[in-house]
Amino acid sequence: WRFKMSLWVYHESQLAPHDLALLKPGGWLNDDLLGFIFEYFTHDHPESARFAETAAFIHPCTVQLVSATNTSEEVACVLEALGLGRKEWIFLPLNDQTEDAAGGTHWALLVYSRAHTHTVLYDSMGQRSALLSKAHTIAKRLDSHLHSLDQRPPRPVMEGVCPIQTNGFDCGVCVAANIEHLLLHGPATGSTITYDLGHITAQRPRWQALIAALRQRV
Questions:
Q1: How far apart are CA 57 and CA 41, in angstroms?
Q2: Predicted confidence (pLDDT) per residue in 89-128, tens digit
Q3: What ranges make up the beta strands (E) of the chain?
Q4: What angle do CA 31, 37, 41 make, to 5 degrees?
Q5: Measured between alpha carbons, how far is residue 199 from residues 32, 87, 93, 172, 203 in Å?
Q6: Which residue has the higher pLDDT, 39 or 103?
Q7: Shortest CA distance to 133 belongs to which of 157, 161, 102?
Q8: Bridge-partner residues for 94, per DSSP?
Q9: Please, is 107 exposed, middle or buried when counting C-beta atoms within 10 Å of its C-beta (0-12, 13-18, 19+)?
């Protein structure tokens, strides 16, 4: 972390006080908080070192850009900068925002894994996800890019099974919990993620404590 005016900067993410307040019960995690969480999985999670060469955690704003970009050349430019060629896992947070801007009301998780024959969409609102069309768009663009690098075959999108949130604001928390489950349990999980719903409730104070600890490094 480093301090920059009223912002706390952590690698490629930055959080303002109003972002941190969203970790309180009832807060909807925004792009900046999800961006921080993805940076944390990249750099400081206990499993980060093990997955440093094989996993990519794509920032929400980058995912939105890939979704909204109109030309194949622009998509290729964005994806090329991510260095995905050697990755076994690619984690992408999907948002229901329809424009190339921050916002939206719901998050889900799209996961590419070489160990699977499908790209899997995990939506904590249940299957028949409203984000399935967007997942197909992003997966198709990702497939095209990876095929150009190493001839990986295209992978259709399937809906995975994960715990269902019981409110309208824990979707971002569920995205983080689902990523962690996959990191800890690996491909053996298949397309099903299971954990107790109490695990979701415990995530907010846990992330608050993690941020407080990271800020002490300044």
A1: 7
A2: 999 999 998 765 556 889 999 998 877 788 999 999 998 8
A3: 2-4, 7-10, 13-15, 55-57, 89-95, 107-113, 119-122, 157-159
A4: 140
A5: 22, 28, 20, 14, 6
A6: 39
A7: 157
A8: 108
A9: buried
CA distances (Å), origin 18, targets 6, 11, 214: 10, 19, 18
Q: CA–CA separation, 59 vs 137, rounded Å? A: 17
Torsions phi, psi for 158 (to 5 deg): -125, 155
Mean predicted confidence (pLDDT) in 45-50? 90
Enter the pTM of the model: 0.91
Gap between the Cα atoms of 126 and 115, Å rounded: 24
- Could you tell me if 119 and 130 are in contact, meaning their C-beta atoms sit under 8 angstroms apart? no
CA–CA gap between residue 71 and residue 97 (Å, rounded):
19
Residue 85 or residue 108, greater confidence: 108
Beta pairing, strands 119-122 & 157-159: parallel
Question: Residue 48 phi/psi, 5° resolution?
Answer: -60, -45
Q: What number of CA atoms fall less than 13 Å from residue 77's CA on the CB side?
A: 7
